[in-house]
């Protein structure tokens, strides 16, 4: 792992177009060799985008592996490049919502697109935040990840086991909550809410925390700019009248928003995750014999 970090540090000096193309080539190789993760990706795409042909879904899957590998290598820029370089490479639209953050409790809702760490960096260039953190399996990578994310401002990180009380306290103290809402963490604190028409165990925490704190929910999505020119971080307007009285309906609203963003840049969504791993009672496993193989999810992309 130290060797990989050393390689990432060396590569971060490269011009982004060269680094990005190198990452894309590695992604093509991973697509050919990581059979189990390829199978999971294609299963997710078959469930979520059934109207596409097999060839179209396979093209998106390959492009996803390329985007994934790019994002991992480009992480080195986020961790070690000077602030001036980051500001040139990150296009923020329309701006980091500092006015909303200053007005009261705020949830920055960041779905799992491969560039999600760029969204975090865009916020950290302007404001501190709090978030949930899962310790990485590698101690060396865990330390590098923490240092990389905290090099501009301190972050309050909480474990999922601590529950929502410390998060609510931090939000009421003025820290926005940077939340990744769209992974399958099991049936606890989740509802089976459709995601592209398939029931998915979806955390109701965004709606519950927003209700408990009267927080504004500001979605944020990070994607690649074309031609290897950097990244775009889009902050959407705060959701109005969210979550209302129905937490399940609010959670469905969140999934519908994510679906719309996925359709805009389908290759950049996190398809290698077993989004439908937890199944409603009486339904079968959709992933069959797909084992973990070399687990892309242990790579330093997401919490």
Which SSEs are present, and which pair or pack?
Layout lengths: L1 H10 L4 H18 L1 H14 L5 H27 L2 H7 E4 L4 H6 L2 E4 L6 H9 L4 E4 L6 H12 L4 E4 L6 H8 L4 E3 L10 E6 L2 E6 L1 H9 L2 E9 L6 E5 L11 H18 L39
Parallel strand pairs: 1-9, 2-5, 2-8, 3-4, 3-5
Antiparallel strand pairs: 6-7, 8-9
List keywords for this structure.
303 residues, alpha/beta, 11 helices, 15% strand, globular
Q: What Rg is obtained from the alpha carbons, in whole angstroms?
A: 19 Å
| Secondary-structure class | alpha/beta
What shape does the CA trace take? Answer: globular
What low-confidence regions span 5 or more consecutive residues with pLDDT below 50?
A: 291-303
Q: Roughly what fraction of the amino acids lie in strands? A: 5-15%
Average of per-residue pLDDT values? 93
Side by side, the strands of the main sheet go 1-9-8-2-5-3-4
Distance N to C terminus: 18 Å
**Largest sheet, strands/sense/barrel:** 7 strands, mixed
Number of helices: 11
* Secondary-structure element series: HHHHHEHEHEHEHEEEHEEH
Brief summary of the model shown:
The chain is α/β, with parallel strands linked by helices and 303 residues long. It has helices spanning 2-11, 16-33, 35-48, 54-80, 83-89, 98-103, 116-124, 139-150, 165-172, 205-213, 247-264; strands at residues 90-93, 106-109, 129-132, 155-158, 177-179, 190-195, 198-203, 216-224, 231-235. The protein has one domain.
